Amino acid sequence: MEEKLICDKCNVPMEEIDAQFKYLSRVFRYKVPRCPECGQVSIPEELVNGKMADVEALIEEK
Amino acid sequence: MQRYYDQFENCREHDIPYCADACPFKIDFLDIQEKLMKKRYNVAYKTIRNAAVFPDIVAALCPAYCQKACIRCTIDEPVQINMLEKTVMAKATRKKPNEYNLPAKKGKIAVIGAGISGMGFAFRLASKKYEVTVFEKSEQIGGHLWDLLPSEVFLNDFELQFQFEEYTLKLNTEIHDLQTLTEEGFDVIYVATGNGGTSFGIDVDSESPCQMIGDTAVFAGGSLCGKDTMHALADGISISVSAETFLKVHRLEYPAAEPASGVVANRDLLTGTPAIQPTDDDGTYTDEEAVAEASRCIRCQCDACQTQCDLVDFFEKWPISMRDEILLTCKPSKAHCHKNPAMRYLNTCTQCELLSEICPGGIDLCDMVKSARYKIHTLGKTPGAFRQYYLRDMEFANGSLAAIKKAAPKNTGDGHCKYAFFPGCNLGALDPDYVIRPYQWLLSKEPDVGMLLRCCSIPVDWDGNEALHEEEIAKLRQDWEELGKPILIMACMSCQKHLREYLPEAETISLYEVMANWGFEAEQQDIGEQLWSVFDPCSARNQEKTQSAVRSLAARAGIPLEELPKGDQHGCCGFGGMGDIATPEFTDYVAKKRSELSENPYVVYCSNCRDIFTDRGKPAVHILDLLFDIDKDGSRRQPTVTERRTNRIQLKETLLQDIWKEDMNEKPEETRYHLVMTPEIAEKVNKGKVLEQDICEVIEHSETTGRRTRNPENGHYKAYKQIGYITYWVEYGIDGDSYEIFNVYTHRMQIELEAVFNGRKVDL
């Protein structure tokens, strides 16, 4: 995680924690920055444009 | 889908070229050409030998049927295949056949006549290691070749090819009846007694001169059946296959005539290039001459789909493999096999329908793609993100802030009108003047022109959403009926094409025909010597009246025009089918191809073409730019996705005020947040098709729920909200009343169960 983000609600640093994702009826889990208190998710742009976009494209044809 | 599947029987992808089709031996000249280009004469020699058995005899005697069939005959001279073949014979250094140590096979073969046909037949079966006996009534082999060639040519070739094969040659042995041979236990007899020779009672004029005598199969062929020398040899070769079939499965079959090839060459590749004349004294080509002559071959193959259809070309798929992938993709998602190999290109196709028009096999792949889009949508497999932007755009265009359905301002009756102007939804989004100015002109010529400003519903058709499409068409029909079923004056060719298909009861005419017919007087444009080309949109392909009206209007404005090389026979500009979200590279690829059809700037009459070309730097103006002096030098900045909405609102407001003297009751929602962004971020936002309204929704969500992260280093907040199928992330800072936007990005994947964390449910 390059950015050191803080959950604005709980005022604690985000940590790499599993979160659940769903796309076209397929469900999977991946570690992303999350607030350890409230579970708020924050997804960095690099992940969105990188691995996430790859997986989206893959699922669209699967 | 089965209906489409059956059409692929007609695909000519594998049909052989004209030269091979005319060749008695079906020699694959494309293969030889490749080898000649690499100066690989020995392998080229092998290719010829494998097909024709006696290559030196063939090279010397063949009258070159292939050359008469060569497509080059239609513009200059055929590829000199015979000369190239002679060059191969002269330059090949390894002519010795391979020696194979195969076990002998069961089967006794008798050949009557040692002419070229009998020898060809005997060679093929002897090389398969059958027991072959050749009976010849004279004292020499070769038959009528003695009258055609120096004996050393054919005798040497016979010796060369037969050097590793065993067969029994009985010279000076005349066969008087077949009974003696059958009694000797021959399983197959080939009667090749030459022109006017004994036929032993076989009907040589029939289509299949073969019969059973006891357990023996008897075939007749070659000059006996009226064939010329080359076809006599070809007979011997092909009948040897029938003989072997008989030996293996005891089925008597004469070789069937092959159906003519349906190959259609790409004539665009034909440019006048005279045949190369050999300079060597022996009449064969030098290496360089052979390469030059072989290069004259355009490699005839039916590739109309690859050369004309952008989708086939870009995805490098032949239609037959596309057929199979599409059928697989159309299976229900719970089917045993549930891959979606065609999902991407099904949702990318521009639906320009060019391929179905030009496919020589009449395969309607375009319609198959369209049906498949409907099918996968019904199955719930279409990724919603592919067309969310366009569907929301349609909803806005048909909403109360943008749509108008009104009779002409001077209409005092029942609200019915003779005509209604149907500008489509994109023209006014690009610039309200594109709608206002033509409408004012129409009213000046004919007071009874109403206005039907809305989307034609093509986005839902392109999305394959059957239920919503029917609903939208029903609303459109109702609007049209409430206006008294007027003749619709269409400014957008895609809308017109769409209505012709789905609202055929409505009479439509293009705005450009109306302008040409109602006497539009164009101001002369001062544009110097520059030549322009009219780019006909794919939706106006074959629409001659509209096309000539546009050209006539341009000519009235003094625009010097030059036609594109193939007129309207080209695909879409790239916008059609709304596939740019599924495969943005494809849209760029298609747009580039269309931009390069001519170096001239384009005059277009579709606002989507205008968008596509202008966005990519190809000079293009709309014909309305020139006729109404709107943006005739094409310098206007393209509106952003948000500005397109405000343009539509402004268009409605202006029309109501100027034409009907009414105020607009509907007001857009006040912008809740004052957004500030750098030009770079604004461009990124626009390119990602993110509306400012979407950004506001994310901020609103963030501000009201407090769900956001903070970067302690720069104080930026980051928050997200899922809108429809897309999740929007916004990084922003607050400066007094302003919200400065530092970054925006989106993804299609949903974040799930964020509210359930560590066994607790959190309020979002």
Architecture overview:
The complex is a heterodimer of chains A (62) and B (764). Chain A is an alpha+beta fold and 62 residues long. Chain A has one domain. Helix content of chain A is 27%, strand content 32%. A two-stranded antiparallel ribbon of chain A has the order 2-3. The radius of gyration of chain A is 13 Å and the shape is elongated. The mean pLDDT of chain A is 90. The mean pLDDT of chain B is 94. Chain B has six domains: 93 residues, no CATH class; 142 residues, NAD(P)-binding Rossmann-like Domain (Rossmann fold); 79 residues, no CATH class; 151 residues, no CATH class; 95 residues; 88 residues. The longest helix of chain B is centred in the first third of the chain and has 21 residues. The two termini of chain B are 46 Å apart. In chain B, helix 4 crosses helix 7 and helix 25 packs across helix 26. Chain B has 764 residues and is an alpha/beta fold. Chain B is 40% helix and 12% strand.
What would you say about this model in short?
The complex is a heterodimer of chains A (62) and B (764). With 62 residues, chain A is of the alpha+beta class. Chain A has one helix at residues 45-61, and strands at residues 6-7, 15-23, 26-34.
Helix/strand layout:
The complex is a heterodimer of chains A (62) and B (764).
Chain A: E1 6-7, E2 15-23, E3 26-34, H1 45-61
Antiparallel strand pairs in A: 2-3
Chain B: H1 2-7, H2 18-22, H3 29-37, H4 41-52, H5 55-61, H6 65-69, H7 81-91, E1 108-112, H8 116-127, E2 131-135, H9 151-162, E3 168-170, H10 178-183, E4 188-191, E5 210-213, E6 216-220, H11 229-249, H12 287-294, H13 304-308, H14 310-315, H15 319-329, H16 343-346, H17 354-358, H18 365-378, H19 388-397, E7 404-406, E8 419-422, H20 425-430, H21 433-445, E9 449-453, H22 458-463, H23 466-482, E10 487-490, H24 493-502, E11 508-510, H25 511-517, E12 533-535, H26 544-556, H27 584-595, E13 602-604, H28 607-615, E14 620-622, H29 623-627, H30 641-658, E15 674-676, H31 679-687, H32 692-705, E16 709-710, E17 717-723, E18 726-735, E19 738-747, E20 750-752, E21 756-757, E22 760-761
Parallel strand pairs in B: 1-2, 1-4, 2-3, 4-6, 8-9, 8-10, 10-11, 12-13, 13-14, 15-19
Antiparallel strand pairs in B: 5-6, 7-9, 16-17, 17-18, 18-19, 21-22
